[in-house]
Design a protein that fits this description.
There is one protein chain. This protein has helices at about 5-15, 40-80, 85-95, 125-130, 135-150, 155-165. The chain is about 60% helix and about 0% strand. Helix 4 packs parallel to helix 6 and helix 5 packs antiparallel against helix 6. It contains six helices and no strands. It is an all-alpha fold and about 170 residues long. Among the domains are: about 45-95; about 120-165.
Length: about 170
């Protein structure tokens, strides 16, 4: 039997009145609390040192990258002064025709870039309309391409006339 059951049985048998007990809890206000003072200055000093160290690492890495890039450029320039076959080949890809000479046995292809978009799908009349806007070099490209492909007499004659006028 629990204490509550015992108390109820005692009350029932004795005819005593039951009492109601009220309890009031009062919580303190935040202003009334007395918290200990904590000195955060050491933690701030440590945080500042960590931040400065991180920034320093970033600056050193950036300086190292800049130095490495400059050193790599200098090494590349020195390699270009006395190039090996591989360096010659790579330089030939980015330099003009004067500096990149073909080695014996090397096959070079000339791929024309037509100055008129969608050239193969245009009629002769449509091509003739566009010839007036082309320079002499562009006209020569059109002339060579037309000779090698469709060889339309009207187009070739018009290109020849434009070239003699310029």
């Amino acid at each position: 039997m629990s204490t509550q059951e015992l108390a109820m049985e005692a009350n029932e048998g004795s005819g005593a009145q039951r009492r109601v007990v009220e309890l009031e809890l009062k919580l303190p206000k935040l202003e009334e609390l007395k918290l200990p003072k904590v000195n955060l200055e050491p933690a701030r000093a440590v945080a500042e040192q960590v931040l400065l160290t991180g920034l320093g690492v970033g600056v050193l890495v950036a300086r190292g990258v800049v130095y490495a890039v400059k050193a790599a450029n200098q090494a590349g320039a020195e390699a270009a002064k006395n190039p090996s076959p591989v360096v010659k080949r790579l330089l030939g890809l980015v330099r003009g025709k004067e500096s990149a000479k073909a080695t014996p046995g090397e096959i070079r292809m000339k791929v024309p870039v037509l100055p008129i978009d969608n050239y193969d799908n245009l009629t002769a009349v449509e091509i003739l309309e566009r010839l007036a806007q082309l320079s002499a070099g562009q006209l020569r490209v059109v002339q060579e391409y037309e000779r090698d492909h469709k060889a339309r007499a009207k187009v070739l004659k018009a290109v020849d006339q434009r070239l003699t006028q310029s």
